Each structure stands twice: as C-alpha cells, then as structure tokens.
Amino acid sequence: MTCLIGVYGASGCGRGIMPLLRTQYPQAELVFIDDGQAPACVNGHDIIHWASFLALKTTEKSVSIAIAAPMIRQRLAEKCAEANIPLIEARATSVVQMDAVVIKDGACLSPFVTLTSNIRIGRCFHANLYSYVEHDCTIGDFVTLAPGAKVNGNITIGDHAYIGAGAVLRQGITIGADAVIGMGAVVTRDVPPGVTVVGNPAKPLTKD
Dihedral sign, CA of 36, 42, 48, 50? Predict the structure, then answer.
C-alpha cells in the first residue's frame, strides 16, 4: 500500500464524500474511520478504528473529515494534526470555481457547488450540494453550508458557523462565529456570534 486516504465519519456525510475521493484518487486505498461503527463495511469500503488507521503501514496517508458539525470537525482536525496526518480536499468534478479563490486545507466541496471570485475560505470548509458563495466573501474555519445554502456577495462568516439548507444570506452582512442559520431562513441583517436565527425575515430563535 503506497497511498491511504481515510474518510473520517461513515454516516451520511461521509458516504457522500467517499465517491468524490474515489474519483479524485483512483489509485489510492480508501477507508472510513469511525470508532462508533468499526469494524464494518459500507459501500465497498472498510470502516476501521482511528488506532487501526494509524497502525496501517503506507508511504502516504491523509484524511478527509466528513462530519457536518463544525466543533466536532475541529476536534478531529486537531487529532489529525497531533498524529501528523495531513487533511485532504474532496472536490466534485462539477464544482465551479472562478478567479482568486483561496481555500485552506481539508475542504469538502460537493457536487454543483459554485464559488465565484475573490473569496477567502478557512480550514475544513464544508459546502454541500448546490450551495454557493458569491464574490468578495470571507469565510472562517470549520464553516458548514448545508445543501442549497446561498451566500451572496461581500459577506463575512465567522468560525464554526452553520448555514442551514436553503438559507439565503443578503449581500453585505456579517454572520458571527458559532452562529446557526436555520433551514430556509432569509437573513437580511447581521447575526451576532452564537445566535440561532430562523424564518423569513430571520429572527433569533426564542424558547417558550
């Protein structure tokens, strides 16, 4: 074995990322890493423990973290760094990327994602099916765009933010770190750090 890629997470997200890596790296050996499901096999790939992954002998080893929750993704990225295992980008062939887009390590870019121009994106970014980021956006580390999320131009998104499926962010706003944008929300104003907003127009979620 010369090249081994581990997809961390054998559930839904991981099962969508594995085929992308299989296309990108046809000569590599690919496995799932999931301590909660190992040992097992899904979609033709073994599920193994982290310790087993580390123990496998190979000349080149890397990981894609395919877990939607931003804080868990960060913890696993730190775990990989401690073991000197680099993070690899997973990218569908249908991704559209235009001019001056900078993406740090560990991104997962699903089919039909669009990144237009002059965008800066941090570590372990997740962009799910049909999501897009328009021009002049700055996106922090460990940010997740659920399917169909719409990030319009000149938006800043802080670390660990989660943008729900089908949400629309108005041009020019700021989404704070650790904020959560609910499914289908239409966000027309800045969202403070750690706040969850829902609805159209989006408002902070309150508990009765």
Answer: negative
Beta strand pairing status for 108-109 and 90-91?
parallel
pLDDT tens per residue, range 28-86: 999 999 999 999 999 999 999 999 999 999 989 999 999 999 999 999 999 999 999 99
With helix as H, strand as E and coil as C, how does 97-148 read?
ECCCEEECCCCEECCCCEECCCEEECCCCEECCCCEECCCCEECCCCEECCC
pLDDT tens, position by position, 73-116: 999 999 999 999 999 999 999 999 999 999 999 999 999 999 99
The residues, ordered by sequence, that sit 6+ positions from 93 with a Cβ below 8 Å of its Cβ are 23
Look up the pTM and report it.
Answer: 0.95
> What is the C-alpha separation between 35 and 8, in angstroms, rounded?
9
**What tokens does 65 get?**
């973290």
Annotated catalytic residues are 135
Q: What count of other Cβ atoms lies within 10 Å of the Cβ of residue 29? A: 16
